[in-house]
Amino acid sequence: MRDYDHIAKVEKNGAILLGDETVADSFYKRLVRVVTHAHEDHIRGLKRSTKESMFIVATPVTHEFLKILGFMIPEQKIVRLDYNREIDIEKDKITLKASRHIAGSAQVIVESINGVSGYTGDFKMPGTEPLRDLDVLVLDATYGNLKYQRGWADWDALAALINIIEKYSGEKPIWIYGYNGKLQEIMIELRSRGIKNKYLADEKTIKMAKIASEFYNVPIGDVSLFNKKLVDAGTIVFMHAFKKRDFIKVEGIHVNLTGWEMRGIAVRIKDNLFNVSFSDHATFKEIIEYVKESRPKRVIIDGSRSNSAWYTAKYLSRVMNIDTKVEPENTLGW
Ligand SMILES: [Zn+2]
User: Fold this and answer.
1) Given phi > 0 = left and psi -120 to 50 = alpha, else beta, which region is 104?
2) Which pLDDT belongs to residue 310?
3) CA spacing 20 to 30 A to 181: which of 63, 74, 105, 200?
4) CA of 263 to the centre of ligand 1 (A)
């Protein structure tokens, strides 16, 4: 068997090393930094990468998001790479492939002299075409344990959210809390399902929503900058999850978007507060399905972003007989 140790590795800080020159989603001193998507846990160390790497590779939409999030990447370092386009940088040939997760999100393939490695980034199934013909696949396994297996899909969660909106928006404002990326997905998904309520959000959220709206080709509709005076029955306020504490006592129905709610699709936590179990990651069974279709020679599970990596690894190696390991190597539970 060939030694693939040199073409893919996950570092403690979540850096995904691919090929000879490339690192994705956290800092490592390499020529090329790839950003698979604009979620907080995938843009770690980007300021340092901007200083120490020569090129920052991401889809055009992700680069737009990064700018809105305040990253100042010099133009000569920005590589806007569309899906399915190859780019050669020194010893690596890099390709980004679409993933269903947030606007602009990508999987990465890097071909180098020692083999072909790929990284899923975050993904949902169905809707993400698995990477194929890889020697090594670095796999995200955020919900990689059967105990997190949801019995519903993200569109069921969306339907539950629409029920809440329709039930209460005649009498109260609706407050929706989530992270950057997820908020915009919901803003767009609601519009594409006919929700016409007025949206309020902060400037960053709106700018990102406009980019997502173009990406998905769904009009963003009536949206204004958040101002308490504009909050009325039927308005939907989109807030970053960090701000929930500040607003949770304000009049209205409050909705937390969280993939970690396993008890049901929409669980009433308090009189005016719901958890809606909307996840932007594949379930355990979907992760396995991905690997079955991908058929890489080896799988490395990202243990830096999941505490279930060991569970998925055991399943892949014992049940499916695939050469699998978890990295970083000291990941708990292995
Ligand atoms: Zn993500």
Assistant:
1) left
2) 94
3) 74
4) 22
- Per-residue pLDDT band at 334 (split at 50, 70, 90): very low
What single letter denotes the amino acid at residue 104?
A: G
- Written as one letter, the residue type at 147 is K
pLDDT at residue 47 greater than cutoff 70? yes
All structural domains of the chain, each given as residue ranges with its CATH number in brackets, are 8-147+281-327 (3.60.15.10), 154-276 (3.40.50)
Instruction: Tally the residues of the chain.
Output: 334
Q: Express each pLDDT in 262-279 by its tens digit.
A: 999 999 999 999 999 998
State the distance from the centre of ligand 1 to the C-alpha of 214, rounded, in angstroms: 19
DSSP classification of residue 230? G
Query: Long-range contacts for 216-222 (Cβ within 8 Å, ≥24 apart)?
Result: 216/103, 216/188, 216/192, 218/188, 218/191, 218/192, 219/191, 220/187, 220/188, 220/191, 221/191, 221/196, 222/196, 222/197, 222/198
Mean per-residue pLDDT of the chain: 95
Distance between Cα 183 and ligand 1 center (Å): 12
Expressed in angstroms and rounded, the spacing between residue 37 Cα and the centre of ligand 1 is: 7
Tell me how crowded residue 16 is: count the other CB atoms within 10 A of its CB: 30
CA–centroid distance, residue 140 to ligand 1 (Å):
10
